[in-house]
Amino acid sequence: MRVMPLLAGLAIGLVAFLPARLALPAPPLAASAVAGSLWRAELVDAQAGAVTLGNLGLSAQPLALLKGRLQWAVAGSLSGQVWRSAGAQGADGLSGRISGAALPGLPIRSIDLAGLSLALDGAGRCQSASGQVTAALATPVAGQATMSGSPACAGEALNLPLASADGRLRLDIAIRPGRWQVVARINGAAPAELLALTAAGFRADGGSLTRMQEGSW
């Protein structure tokens, strides 16, 4: 009668101490190195698509197994949870600041997340998205220094439209399975800014300056 509890305990122990890289959330979350076990792990130079997250610590939350998930609490530049199940992966309630973040299109000094929640299916298609994202520019453009917006699903794509309070700056980010696209639009740039923006790849589009970039992850 004691054999089954012993076997169950052994199985749980083996899963808990499997190498973390075998079951941590898959792309777009990636890292240059993963150390530790599923119980407690560290992601070195973690990235989500084109955004650098820095080093993150992950601690397993065993009760999430009741929902069929492997789930970890996040510590470091971000707090919240990331999770993975048999056919999906995502994040719940991520908050914090990502400093020195690099987003194509405009020079970003930092990105603040507030209650960001995402769910992607096994192929990386968007299932749900909510929360708030605020990006601070490294250098003001058209008199604006910040942009904000909320993520949403549009078909299989995860869309994040960021805009300044007056709408003069806009950064539309679309992430699809294996691909990303960023379209930056600027209205009302000062004459002194036009030369630098043109040299950076912006082109006149009606009354706006526009730049589109895309790539893979």
What's the order of the H and E elements? HEEEEEEEEEEEEEEHEE
* Mean pLDDT rating: 79
Please give the share of residues in helix: 10-25%
Which runs of at least 5 residues are low in confidence (pLDDT < 50)?
A: 1-23
> What is the rounded Rg?
20 Å
The number of helices is 2
Instruction: Give the number of DSSP strands.
Output: 16
Helical/strand content category: mainly beta
How far the N terminus sits from the C terminus, by CA atoms, comes to 51 Å
Largest sheet: 10 strands, antiparallel
Oligomer: single chain
Portion in strands: over 45%
Gross morphology = elongated
Main location: membrane
Keywords: Cell inner membrane, Cell membrane, Membrane, Protein transport, Transmembrane, Transport
Subcellular location: Cell inner membrane
Family: Belongs to the GSP N family.
Topology:
Blueprint: H1 3-16, E1 29-30, E2 33-36, E3 40-48, E4 51-60, E5 70-76, E6 78-84, E7 88-99, E8 108-121, E9 126-141, E10 144-149, E11 152-154, E12 157-163, E13 169-176, E14 179-186, H2 191-199, E15 203-205, E16 208-216
Antiparallel strand pairs: 1-3, 2-3, 3-4, 4-5, 5-6, 6-7, 7-8, 8-9, 9-10, 11-12, 12-13, 13-14, 14-16, 15-16
Account of the protein in words:
The longest helix has 14 residues, at 3-16. The chain starts with a helix and ends with a strand. Residues 1-23 have low confidence and may be disordered. The protein has 217 residues and is mostly beta strands. It is built from 2 helices and 16 strands. It is elongated. It has a domain at 23-85. The strands form 2 sheets. Strands 1, 2, 3, 4, 5, 6, 7, 8, 9 and 10 form a 10-stranded antiparallel β-sheet that branches. A 6-stranded antiparallel β-sheet has the order 11-12-13-14-16-15, with no helix packed on it.
